[in-house]
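Checked the freezer inventory, then went back to the computational side. Two predictions to log before the end of the day. The first one is the construct we discussed on Monday; recording sequence and C-alpha cells without edits.
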Amino acid sequence: MDEADRLTISDLKKHGGSGLNLMEAAGLSVVREITKNCTGSKALILCGPGNNGGDGFVIARHLEEAAWKVDIALLGSIENLVGDAKQMALLWDGSVIPLDKDAIGNHDVIVDAIFGTGLSKDIEGDLGVAINMANQSGAHKIAVDIPSGVKGDTGEVLGTAFNADLTVTFCRSKPGHFLFPGKAFCGQVIVADIGTSERTIKDIHPHIFHNHPDLWIDKFPGPASNCHKYNRGHAVVVSGDMIHTGASRLAAKAALRVGAGLVSVSSPADALSTHAAHLTSVMIRRRGEIISDLEDDRLNAWCIGPAAGVDVSTRKNVLEIIKADKKVVLDADAITVFSEGPLELFEAINANIKSQCVLTPHAGEFAKLFPYLYKLDKITATQNAAKLAGAVMIYKGPDTVIASPNGKIVISTNGPPTLATAGSGDVLSGLVTGLLAQDMPIFEAACAATWVHGECANQLGRGLISEDLIEKIPRILLQLPGDK
C-alpha cells in the first residue's frame, strides 16, 4: 500500500495535484462513514505523528464543518509533524491537546488516527493507558486504516490495540483485518475508494488475495452436456476400522456432492458391514493392500486421514499414495502420524515431481508438523510450510490461510464460528478431493472447497452439524457465478 500511495501521488503530481489530495479523500471517506453510522455530536480525534495523523486532522476539519464539536489529541507536537500531515494540521484552527489518558472524556465518537499500518513496535506506557481508556469508554470507536496496535501485514497485536467498532481502510483491505488476533479489534471493515487506480494495483503484482469465486470460478468444474460419470473422476476416501468409519463417510459424501463422478470408501474387512449399512451412492471397496487399488489409473484422487488411525498402516498408506502419483488430500490422522518424523513425509512429496498434495492441518496439527514455524505469524508460517512440504497448505481456523509452494497466498474469511464442530474438517477434505477428481487445479481446488465450505455454514447458521454441510452443497453450487 505504501507503493500504491507513492504511484498514485506521482500520477496526481502529473496533473497538478499532490499527496494532500489523497489525504483529503481518505479523511472525507471516514467522515462519510461516521455521519452514516454514528449518532451524537461530540468527537475526539486521536492523531499520531505520521500520515495517519494527517488523515485525523482532515476528519476533524470536516466533522466540525458538519456542526460536530471536535477535540483533537495529538501524540507529539504540530511543530514536529512533516510533509502532508503538517500541512493538514496547519489547516486546523482549533486547539490541540496532548494524547494521554486525560484526553479521554465524554465523547460520542472516538477516532483512532494514531499509527495505521506503519506501526513496528509495541504500544505501551502512557499511550497504552490512553488507548485502553478509550476502549473502555462508551463512545462509538472508529479506526482509520487499521486499529493502532494491529500490525497490518500479519494481524499481530503489538502491546495493546485500539478496539474499533468500525474500521475504514483505503483502496484494499489488509491482511491484518482478517488474521487473528488483529481481526478481533477491527469491528466492521469498510474499504473506501480514494482514487487509486486498478492499473496501479496490477502494477504492484500483489500475491496475497481474499478468497472469492473470482479467483477460481473459471477453473471450477461443471458437467458438460456430453459428460458421463467416468470422465468426472473417481475419488477414494480411506476408512479406519469398524468403530472409526463416520469421518470417512462424511468426506466421501462431500466429494460426491461437489461433483466427482464416482466415489468409493476404501474399507478394511471389519468395517465393510458398517459402511454398507450407511452408504448408497458412495461405493465400498474392500481393502487388503492399498497398493492394488493404487495401480488403477481410474482412481485419480485420494483422501486419507479422517479417522484413518494414527498407526503404522496409515503412515505406510500415505507414502504409497504419494509414490503412486495420485492427487491426495492429507487430513487429521494422516498428518498426526508424521508428527514424530515429518521430514519423511516432506521428502516423499518433494521427491515426486508429479506430486499433487494438499495438507489441511488445524493449529494443533500444524504445530506438531511444523514445530519451528507455528509461532510465526500465520501468513509467514503457512507460506513457509507449503514450500517446505512441497504441498498446498490449508491452515484451518477462524482465519484460514491457503498457500501454494510457489508463494501464492489466499486468506479465506467466510467461514463462521459454527464450523467449530466435529466432522466439519472431514467435509472440507472431501470437497477438495471431489474437485481434484474432476481435474480442477490443486491450488484453486483448495480455495474453492474452502469457500464453498464456509458458505454452506453461513446458510445453515447456528446449530449446524457436519452432516448438514453436505446437504447444503448443491444450493451453494447453484449460486456460483455462471451456474444454472
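The second is the one RB wanted added to the comparison set:
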Amino acid sequence: MQITSNSFILFLVIGYLLYYIVPSKWQWIVLLGLSYAYYLIVSVPAVVFLLYSTVVTYGCALWIGGLYAKEGADRNASRGKARRVIVLGLLLDFGMLAVLKYSNFMILNLNALFRSHLSLLQLILPLGISYYTFSSAGYLLDVYWERTKPETNFFHYALFVSFFPQMLQGPINRYHSLGVQLTQEHVFSLHSTKQGLERILWGVFKKMILADWAAVYVDVIFADPEHYSGLILIGQLLYAVQLYGDFSGGIDVMIGVAQLFGITLEENFNRPYFAISLADFWRRWHMTLGLWMKDYVMYPLTLSKAMSRLGKKCKKALGRKKGRLIPICISNIIVFLLVGIWHGAGWGFIIWGLYNGLIIAFSNYFADRFAAAKKALHIPEKSALWHIFMVVRTFVITMIGNYVDLTDSFSRMLRMMRYALTRFAPTQILEISSGKLGTAYTPVALGILAAGCILLFAVSLAQERGVRIRDTLSKWPLPVEFGLCLVLLICIPMFSPMAMARGFIYAQF
C-alpha cells in the first residue's frame, strides 16, 4: 500500500476519524490496531517477524529490569547476568535481520569462493525490518544502561515497535521520546492537523515532482551508460535530486502523518546538501541512523578496554594529540562499515561504507594540518567563498560515493567516472522519452524539474538562514495559506510523471 495511493489516503482518513472519535484513553489502542492493520495489508507473513522482534526485546528488557530490581542483590553479579541477557537479546534480534537480509549474499560469496552450487533461499524481507530492529535494539540497550525503565505493558511496547508511520523508511525512534507520546491522551488540534497536512503535501511534492521526474532520466542514463556517456555527470546530479527527494520526501510524509495523531517523530534531515564536510553531511542526512550509531556503537567502541589500550600505545608512539585520535578514527571506519552493511547486502555497499569512513577518519586525523594550511593561505574564518567551496567539495565527495548505487561492477564504476570527466554532451538528454508524449515533452519535463529544484533550494536556503517556513505561513491569513497549499496540491498530479509515486528507495532497507 503506497503512501501516495488512494487506498492509503482512505486508510489514513478512517484511522484519523476513529482516533479522535473514541474516548482519549483508548487512542493508543486505535494506533496499535492501525499499525498492525497496515502491516497485515502489506504482508501477512511479515507480521511474524515483527512480533518476534517485539517479544524478544520486551522479554529481555523485563529480565534485565528484574535482575536490577532484586533487593539485596550483588550489583556486580546482577550486572554480569544482565550482560549475558543483553548479548542474548541482541543476538536474537539482529540474528533475525542477518538471516533474512544477508543469507543469500553469503551464499553467493561462498559459491564464488569455493565454486559450489548452493541454492539461494526463498526469504522475504519484511517492510521496515531494519528500522524496527534498530529501534527495539536501542530500547534494549537503554534498559541495560539504565537510561530507560523496562516497559511492563506488552501492548504499549508493541505499539512503539510497530507504529506504522515509521515503518516505511524511519526515522529510527527512541523509546524515551516516542513511547510516552504514543500512550498519552491527545485532543484534536486544528493547528497540528494543518501543519501535518502541509508537511505531507511538501513531502509528496518532493517525491512525485523531484524524485520521480529525476528517476525517469537516471534510470535510462545508467541502464546504458555507454550510449549516454555524455550525460554521466548530469545523471549524477539528477540522482542526487532523486535520492534526496525520495528519502526526505518520504520522511516528511511520515512525520506529517504522525503529527495528525498528535505524535512528534524525530527529524531525519537538516539540509544535508549545505554540509561543509562529509562528517557534517552525515550529521544532517538520515540523522536518526547517525545518532543511533554514535550512541550505541561509536561511543561504546571508543570507550572500550581494547580501544583504551590501543590509545595508550598510540600516544606513546605518536604523541598525546595524534595518539588519542587513532581509536576515534578506527571507530569511525567501523561505524561506517556497519552503515554500509545496513544499507544493503552487497560488496558495493561495503565499499561505500569504507569510503565514507576512511575520508572522515583521514579528515579527523589531519584536521590540524588543514587548519594550518588555511591559516597560511590567509583564508578568513567567515569567508563566503571558502564556505561555498567547502559545500561544493562535500557535495562532490558524496556524488563520488553515489556511483556505488548506480553500477553493478567496479570496472564499470571507474569507466563511468572517466566519462564524467572526459565526455559532456547535455543535448543527449533530449533523446530520452518523458512519459506518454515521448521526447517532445522532454523540454517541458526538464523545466518542471528545474522549477521544482529552484523552489526546494529557495526554501532550504531560507531555512538554513533560520527562517521557520511553516511558522511563517501560519501567520498569514488562512485563505492565503490555503490557496498556496491548493496550488501545490493541484500542481503535483498535473506535473508528475505518473499518477502514483514510484516505490521508495529506502523502503528496501
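For RB: The first helix runs from residue 6 to 21. The radius of gyration is 25 Å. Let me know if you want it refolded.
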